Amino acid sequence: MNRKLGIYYWFGFDIDFKERFQIIKEAGFQATSLWGGVDNEINEKKWNMLPDLARKTDLEIENIHIPFENANFIWESGDNFQIYFGEIKKAIDYCHNHQISTGVLHLTRGFDIPKIENIHLERIKNIVYYAEEKNVNVALENLKQYKILDFVFQNIQSERLGFCYDSGHERCWAIHEDFLGKYYSKLTAVHLHDNTGAGDKHDLPFDGRCNWKNIMNKLKDYKGSLMLEVTAQKSRRYKKMCVKDFLKRAFIAGNRLNLL
Q1: Tell me: the pLDDT tens digits for 113-157?
Q2: What phi, psi does 133 have (nearest 5°)?
Q3: I want to staple 31 with a disulfide (CB 3.0 to 4.6 A). Which of 48, 101, 225, 257 is the partner?
Q4: Which domains does the chain have, with CATH numbers?
Q5: In which region does residue 222 sit, left (phi positive, over 0), alpha (psi from -120 to 50) or beta (all else)?
Q6: pLDDT in tens, 184-217
Q7: Burial of 229 from C-beta contacts in 10 A (0-12 / 13-18 / 19+)
Q8: How big is the CA angle at 208 (ends 65 and 181), to the nearest 5 degrees?
Q9: β-bridge mates for residue 203, sequence order
């Protein structure tokens, strides 16, 4: 099965957005995904221009990544959750306004989850309810604290609540888990990248120790694009590569995945 290949729009090179999408397309990719908020790199005006820039380059926008810096606010007491909820709602609105089907969401950020109380479940339900109102999918990603997924999927049933499989996170933090086996029926997005298990490097497929034959066998019926979430910033092997060479190597890796 020859699936579409995609790459997250930030892959480690600081170049103009219009040029970035053009280079992605010229490398052979058919899809991309975007960051779901305003940050130091992009202001509100530019952020809202990105979907049109990508589509004018004939790239499909498969999903966005909702900001996650404040994800732990879900689990804290007090009013901080409303800050993160506001960021999530803004990202969901962005999907709705720009006809993007899915926002990928982190529920935690590198910490031990406290005892789960009803207030936490209600907060996550409110996120899902808002996504339902806007007809946008929210895809929960497997992270370091991955056991939260069982709790959420068991307690919240919604056609708008899905799963984003992250190969690198599985290899780095939960090598003995079978996320695709457990949550395949909810799969709405994938983040494909590699590492050796010694850190979340976001390397190109086949440059680490992910079992790609096994992964691709489980993804054989997946209809979405094979979205690479890779960066040239974290590994020395890519430091001296120019942007076009990195994307060429990324596209070759994607094609190898398609052949498995």
Answers
A1: 778 899 999 999 999 999 999 999 999 999 999 999 999 999 999
A2: -60, -35
A3: 225
A4: 5-259 (3.20.20.150)
A5: beta
A6: 999 999 999 999 999 999 999 999 999 999 999 9
A7: buried
A8: 60
A9: 194
